[in-house]
């Protein structure tokens, strides 16, 4: 869990598409998941449930289990008909040791209760991510761990003893998908020189296959905002970049294309690059890199790319963006396949205030996209933006595109 230079303000933020946004509690990193009727927003410090049709917030019964800790992410598995939430354990003297993970026994996250577990309690973890594939729930973290259990075990209260696997590389990330109906789970990690990506594939029996694919090098520098260069207190330029980690991994519908977002510098601008690995779902596991597309804001920087897919099949890339003339904002790109040229992004929520050297704006650990089941052309997006004064930032949540 990384802490960033920021001061906080609470309040409400109007959204661009009528849904609206909610200001974040301390240490935000918003993650969003929605079913047809219900939704969950989770942050490093709090969890919120909401009614998807009316966008009305209501209490979520996870306050004790997730009372502390951070890097929380929440997911909806449409195939599994379950919500899953994971984060860093920080409830006792072993803060930072192990993953807290919880799953609903059914579709209702408010009244049916959650089955909760602590995995890997003897090891330090960072930024756990979750992948759902039919009856398998898989968790990977930046420190090298992979845990897996069956959805059946977890929903019945029998998920306390997961299987454990070592990552092939560094900075691991569990791939997610729109539907959760694929027969394979995937974990991506980088090699020591940050010019290749390992893909580990697990089937329903958790038998594993592995491949290393060269990608060319990728890394970025400090993020620009106004006249400042933003980074965190440990000197990391932007989430994931110190380890050149994958910031999101997504299995597109059909199970053939595995997309991975990373950060790369192009002509002085920091950009989000999306790799396309094909065919990861083939019987013989021998995927190849089909190419990539770069998503840039010319003269500015983009980072922390997240991937999502609408019910109509369109894939979008959400990311943070800022620059010499742009406060921390949210930008959007449209994935149309590997391209030889750079893809320009559009600003979907503009920040309105620059940070200062004494009170820097926040670079979030991640952005989030979730399928919006009430409109087949939309996704629900979540991230952080700079707002109102140099010492305030807000969580932005709204429908896109």
Portion in beta strands: over 45%
Instruction: Report the structural category.
Output: mainly beta
CATH hierarchy: architecture:
7 Propeller
Terminal residue distance: 30 Å
How would you describe what is shown here?
By secondary structure, the chain is mostly beta strands. The chain has one domain (12-400): 7 Propeller (Methylamine Dehydrogenase, Chain H), CATH 2.130.10.10. It is 1% helix and 47% strand. The longest helix has 5 residues, at 151-155. The radius of gyration is 19 Å and the shape is globular. Residues 1-27 and 232-243 have low confidence and may be disordered.
Which characteristics define this entry?
mainly beta; Methylamine Dehydrogenase, Chain H; six-stranded mixed sheet; four-stranded antiparallel sheet; 1 helix; 33 strands; 1% helix; disordered N terminus
């Amino acid at each position: 869990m990384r802490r960033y230079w920021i001061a906080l303000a609470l309040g409400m933020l109007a959204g661009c598409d009528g849904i609206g946004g909610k200001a974040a509690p301390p240490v935000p990193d918003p993650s969003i998941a929605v079913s047809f009727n219900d939704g969950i927003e989770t942050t490093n410090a709090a969890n919120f449930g909401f009614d998807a049709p009316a966008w009305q917030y209501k209490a979520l019964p996870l306050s004790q289990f997730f009372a502390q800790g951070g890097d929380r992410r929440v997911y909806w598995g449409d195939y599994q008909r379950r919500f899953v939430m994971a984060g860093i354990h920080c409830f006792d003297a072993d803060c930072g040791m192990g993953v807290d993970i919880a799953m609903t026994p059914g579709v209702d996250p408010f009244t049916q209760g959650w089955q909760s577990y602590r995995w890997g309690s003897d090891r330090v973890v960072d930024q756990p991510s979750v992948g759902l594939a039919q009856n398998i729930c898989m968790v990977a973290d930046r420190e090298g761990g992979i845990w897996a259990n069956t959805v059946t075990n977890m929903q019945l209260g029998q998920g306390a003893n997961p299987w454990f696997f070592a990552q092939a590389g560094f900075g691991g990330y569990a791939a997610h998908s729109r539907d959760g109906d694929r027969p394979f789970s995937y974990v991506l990690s980088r090699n020591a020189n940050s010019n290749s990506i390992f893909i580990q594939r697990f089937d329903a029996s958790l038998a594993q296959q592995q491949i290393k694919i060269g990608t060319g090098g990728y890394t970025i520098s400090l993020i620009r905002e106004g006249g400042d260069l933003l980074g965190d207190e440990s000197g990391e330029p932007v989430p994931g970049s110190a380890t050149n980690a994958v910031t999101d991994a997504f299995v597109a519908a059909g199970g053939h294309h595995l997309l991975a977002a990373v950060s790369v510098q192009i002509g002085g601008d920091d950009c989000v690059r999306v790799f396309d690995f094909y065919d990861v779902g083939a019987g013989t596991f021998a995927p190849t890199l089909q190419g990539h597309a770069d998503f840039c804001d010319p003269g500015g920087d983009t980072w922390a790319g997240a991937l999502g897919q609408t019910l109509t099949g369109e894939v979008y890339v959400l990311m943070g963006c800022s620059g010499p003339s742009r406060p921390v904002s949210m930008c959007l790109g449209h994935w149309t396949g590997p391209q030889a040229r750079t893809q320009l992004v559009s600003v979907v929520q503009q920040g309105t205030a620059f940070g200062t050297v004494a009170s820097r704006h926040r670079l979030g650990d991640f952005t989030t996209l979730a399928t919006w089941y009430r409109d087949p052309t939309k996704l629900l997006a979540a991230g952080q933006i700079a707002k109102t004064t140099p010492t305030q930032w807000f969580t932005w949540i709204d429908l896109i595109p």
